[in-house]
Amino acid sequence: MAENRSLQRQPDKLDYASPTQFKFGIHQLPKVEFFTVAVNVPAINIGITYYPTPLKDIPMMGDKVTYDNLTISFIVDEYLENYLSLHEWITGIGFPKDRKQFSDFRTASASMPGQKTKQTTDLKTGQATSVLPMFSDATLTILSNKNNPIIQIFFQDMFPVSLSGLEYNQDATDVEYMKATAEFAYNIYEITSV
Asked: Is residue 138 helix, strand or coil?
């Protein structure tokens, strides 16, 4: 009887996960999608709380899930189009020069296909407004060794937190194409089988 149970517990799929078999897509940044060379599945943490006792505090499971940020690396194209699209998203949200940058960014991004509409209330006027281009959804698709999709990780309501700089250097002996790294915060991610 015990032998039968141990045989049933053996894995039936023995292939290992390959770090090169993935496809990443983000609605707000279609030009970044094609050039993405690295992406992480962020860590998830529930934390620890402690129950106090006179002798030793007893660790208990936490009650709030926290997610690490999503980080991607992408090759920068010659005309910097993919880099600038992400740069404009960050400056559009932060509007470092004037408030018009924010409204221009929202207007320009509103016509993008697949863009998510979200409603919020304007604090000045009290009217419902859309926060359309400030957030975007993304999907990381894990592929099998035959390039068939097997797992999808869906990131909801992402927004950029940081974008690395670009370093030009005349001392380079061989051409290494420029890469940029971007970090995103998001509401939640869900993993589903395809």
From this structure: strand
Q: Which of 17, 47, 27, 23 is nearest to 37 (CA)?
A: 23
Specify the pTM. 0.78
Q: What is the rounded distance in angstroms from the CA atom of residue 71 to the CA atom of residue 42?
A: 8
- Strand residue runs (E) in 96-148: 119-121, 128-130, 136-143
Q: Do 32 and 72 contact (CB within 8 A), yes or no?
A: yes
The confidence score (pLDDT) of residue 125 equals 58
Radius of gyration (C-alpha) of the chain in whole angstroms: 22
Q: What is the pLDDT of residues 87-106, one digit of tens each?
A: 988 988 887 777 777 777 76
Buried-exposed string 96-111: b where 16+ CB fall within 10 A, e elsewhere: eeeeebbeebbeebee
